[in-house]
Amino acid sequence: MPRRARGTAVLFCTALLASACSPQAPVPPSDATVDIGFLAPLTGPAASVGAETKRGAELAVEIVNGRHRSIPLPLGPQAGLPGLGNARIKLVAADTAGPVSRGAAQVARLVNTHHVVAVAGGYESAVTEAAGARSEQLKVPFVNGGSSAASLTERGLGWFFRTGPSDLSYGRVIFSLLKERQSSGTPVKRIAVLHTDDQYGNDGTAMIKRYASHIDGKVVTDMKISPRATDLSSQAQKVSAVAPDVVLTLLYTPQALALSTTFDRLAYRPPALIAFGGGHADPAFLQKNGDVAAGVCSRFAWSSDLARHNPTARAVADLYTRTYDTPMNDDAARAFTAVMTLAQAINDARSRRPADIRSALVNIDVPGRDTIMPWDGVKFDDNHQNIGARGVVEQIQRGRYRLVYPFDVAHARLQWPMDGSGG
């Protein structure tokens, strides 16, 4: 081989070797998609919640991809991710209904079969815990918006992030409300707790017992309920017998419906029932229980009442209603925010590499005005819990949830007792 040919061959092989060894993946064409996974219970008892979260996630993707350019969000005016040559996002949904382990299995399938660069979503905390552990093993970012168990961000995971409030945050707002009621002379010390016997319920109950000391309170009954239970007759009778000042619940939709209808059958209404989300926040609870649900309170991370005062939130909520012919709710808003946060991190990373996206999530700082939530924004602490997330309390009045606490932003007066017979 001539010397020039040998030199050319060496340079060519060296270039190939350098390309193969380079830590930077080649930049794909601008019309390529960025695939992200989304976890939700799309079948089974929580399917109505799963449908709402999936809609919220899909709407976020549509906005990022440029289908609604009038929405005043950071990634709204353009089409796609400018940091990746305007690449579009593709949402790959996975059903987590069934055994707790299915969440982990779906994460593995999304990563290994669909090659997603990150995962968002999650509802039941136990499912999210398993899914988060698997994403940790696979080193793929997981951005959760809908699971509230405090322990999810206290496990020292490096790849799990939560945009929504934890039950610690929700507990603070609920017990702040109880403290204010107490200062006005309302008895709140005797607390009954009904909760699912899983991570969501057990973690939440431990938090309640910790916060009870803030009002010199006592948990007079603590009832564990199977997440699959549909008959709460004995539990409702026990609550009635101990006559608590307030009932706190951590239940899914079937249990929330069963408890409400059983209380009605027993002609019993506690002075107050405050739910830590779950089934009481599911639109199906309102649709199926009607007047029986009046007076029930629940904590939320998003409020349609507050959204009317935020141009961005109002625009997204109106778009959601036009698109899906149903009002936007808390579950949809939290999923929307999780996906938007993930999209912004991918754009900031200018990369499809999971490690780069994780780094962008660690450093993300989204001001509250650039979200649809009544929060300070999105910024993660060392445990990857969003320090900007906040909770509010709403109460079912005249067939829908109304914002009643904090009092300085309330849109309706809190009814206590919940039957409306008092102030």
Describe this structure in words.
The chain has 13 helices and 14 strands. By secondary structure, it is α/β, with parallel strands linked by helices. The protein has a seven-stranded mixed β-sheet, with helices on both faces. Helix 8 (253-265) links the parallel strand 8 and strand 9 (273-275). Mean pLDDT is 91; it is low at 1-30. Residues 33-389 form the Leucine-binding protein domain. This is ABC transporter substrate-binding protein. Residues 1-20 form the signal peptide. It holds the Pfam family Peripla_BP_6.
Class by alpha and beta content = alpha/beta
CATH class of the largest domain: Alpha Beta
Give, in order, the helices and strands.
HEHEHEHEEHEHEHEHEHEHHHHEEEE
The DSSP helix count reads 13
Question: Low-confidence spans: pLDDT under 50, at least 5 residues?
Answer: 1-30
Shape-level CATH architecture of the largest domain: 3-Layer(aba) Sandwich
Family: Belongs to the leucine-binding protein family.
Protein name: ABC transporter substrate-binding protein
Organism: Streptomyces xantholiticus
Signal peptide: 1-20
Layout of SSEs?
Layout: H1 3-21, E1 33-40, H2 47-64, E2 88-95, H3 102-112, E3 118-121, H4 125-138, E4 142-144, E5 160-162, H5 167-183, E6 190-196, H6 199-211, E7 218-225, H7 233-242, E8 246-250, H8 253-265, E9 273-275, H9 283-289, E10 297-300, H10 304-307, H11 311-324, H12 330-349, H13 354-363, E11 366-367, E12 377-378, E13 392-397, E14 400-405
Helix pairs in contact: 2-12, 3-4, 5-6, 7-8, 8-9, 12-13
Keywords: Signal
Signal peptide: 1-20
Family: Belongs to the leucine-binding protein family.
